[in-house]
Amino acid sequence: MRIVPVPCLKDNYAYLVIDGTYAAVVDPSEPAPVLDAAAREGVDIGAIWLTHHHWDHVGGVEGILQMHPGAEVVAHPTDAEKAKVPKVTKKVEDGQTVTTGPLTAKIIHNPGHTLGAISYVIEDAVFTGDTLFAAGCGRVFEGTMEMMHDSLQKLAALPPETRVFFGHEYTASNLKFAAHAEPDNEAVKARAGSLVTPSTPSTIGDELATNPFMRAKDAAQFAERRTGKDNFKG
Ligand SMILES: [Zn+2]
Fold this sequence. Notes:
Metallo-beta-lactamase, Chain A, binds zinc ion, 234 residues, alpha/beta, six-stranded mixed β-sheet, 9 helices, 32% helix
């Protein structure tokens, strides 16, 4: 398996997950860059794996289906019901696996950013959408702070070497808030000092060391930090 990040829009990442000439695409926000990348890599898109229903993660679905009409479209049932997620053909819940062509991913339901947000775990990689970013996490739009805290702790339990492929390049500003939240955290300073953009992928180990949201000691501290970041001017 190999993974090709595809920058989309201003700061989004879609990803091609490739085995041979088969590919699944994660979170295509727009079709053109993804179709170009698939052509460049010489792969056929057989599946579209959606982490949640927001337009900047699903906006490319219809354009990709025009070129790859047989591709299956995967989402959690809660987010699949949202009007913005077009043509979902397979609904997946926590703990289930999704197999498309030679690729099999395990689903982690991580509500908080949206109620039907999911991550896809395949081999040593996890695709986290807007739940977990490098040194940050998504805003809590639909769930509760407790839900989002629990969701991040589920991801924290993955092996530390797991590569984290996230939905947005927010790492530089996330590290500024991380330094504000934990001014004595040397790992945050080191990471900020050696940051290279694009910064995808991260690892669960790096997040355990530097992510102030994953490192929150309980839901209350998580909520305090999430609210602080929402209002942080950096
Ligand atoms: Zn989102």
